[in-house]
Amino acid sequence: MSWTERATSSHKLQLFTTALVSGTVAAIAVLGYQEGRRQLKLRQIRAEIPDVDPDATPLTEYGAAVDVSNPSKEDKRSAALALRARMGDYDDALILEQLARNRVFLTDPGLKTLRNSFIIIVGLGGVGSHACAALARSGVSKIRIVDFDQVTLSSLNRHSVATLADVGTPKVHALRRRLEQVVPWVHWDCRNELFSDKVAEKQLAPWSLDGEFKGQKPDFVIDAIDNIDSKVALLHYCHTHSIPVISSMGAGCKSDPTRVFLGDISASAEDPLSRATRRRLRLLGVSSGIPTVFSTEKTAPGKAQLLPLPDEEFQKGKVGELGVLPDFRVRILPVLGTMPAVFGLVVANHVILKLTGYPHDYLPSKGREKMYEGILGNVQAMEEKLARVAGSDPVGVRVPLTQNDVGYLVEEVWRGKSVVSGLATRLTLVRWRRPEGSVLDTSVEGQKCSTLKMGDLICMTKEEAVRHEKEVLKGEKQPEDVYDGQVIKLVAVRMEEEKEFEKFR
């Protein structure tokens, strides 16, 4: 008997086969019914979606506009109205009505000054876009905006006016297009360019567009850049060319608006961007005189941190290749969308008060010039002592340091605190190690110069320096014999950090 004959004669096998077939048919029926319901639901949802405007700009899979040069009907209408308004076809009474609240606050002379002012804003991210919008709404009529970047989807959590339709468009044109719908009389000079020291003269030049304002110098420059090289170049150019400027430091990783201050750049603290900017500017001879918006908020467990790049990114090749531009940041800062707005509005507020002469004060610089002068004298005396111990004549010894160098070492390298105890009073600078070889350089006839270098000095209290002089500089001990591992490590880290900044000196 064959297997088929045996299977058909087996009652149990017949029952099993029948159950299997019926189960399969039932499963197919259930799945078919569910698929039918899904298709019906999908058709209902699609029927509820309104028809797409044929003039609307579609987005790519990356969320960018396919044709960024195709303005909507509303944009075209706003642009036409703005053009007429800039040509004078806009009743001045309407403008004054729109600015009525500012007018009664600043008075007519103050508002007139603001309306005649020319402002340059460099950087149109969260900070710069809010500053620009506030100034335009307040009456500033000539604004030059500089930014090389485009609006992205991630920009929309903090940008002042950008919409989804602006994604993929240059920030300068997105900002202008939206603000033209609010203040059509404002004259715009859009520069879709990256700021650098090579183009500073061109980008910060007087108003260059045709009209009665041509040749007007900028009344204020706003620094809202988050790239240190460009930031330092802008601030240094403005400072050396006597152009009023205000700088915004980092809003990334900040969350407490009550700790946002406006003060002199020498008073800014608790911000890596601020510290790096101050340090680079000090090396260029600029230590104060620049109003700065910064946060004193300190990091803490549970708060957002600037995380390093993952190891796999480093393994792919040069980290610099990950950036949009050479030497540009390649990490995404954690940013709470409200904080850049706070920084930008504080910047705009200060510019308005400064231009209109409204009473205002901000945190003064630290005013430690006398302290730096005293520390320089202490360093001079120490070098004379070491020369005497080495058997050299200390009379007429010159130290290759200036008061500015002392301020840079104390404030930027050693953070204004003793490396030993962390105290911030009665500070001085002292050599970290006993000098090897001669203390004096007498290679030039008639001149005795100390061989001291800035990288040889550390910051201590005067009491700690006395002990250090006795045990290390005049004694037989090494710093490792006197201080614990934590102090040794801190000194090594700070000295290594300083080597990286020497290239900017």
Automatic annotation (TrEMBL):
Its main location: mitochondrion. InterPro entries: ThiF/MoeB/HesA, ThiF_NAD_FAD-bd, Ubiquitin-activating_enz. One of its GO terms (molecular function) is ATP binding. CDD domains: YgdL_like (cd00755). It comes from the Eukaryota. Residues 101-363 form the THIF-type NAD/FAD binding fold domain. Catalyzes the ATP-dependent dehydration of threonylcarbamoyladenosine at position 37 (t(6)A37) to form cyclic t(6)A37 (ct(6)A37) in tRNAs that read codons beginning with adenine. This is THIF-type NAD/FAD binding fold domain-containing protein.
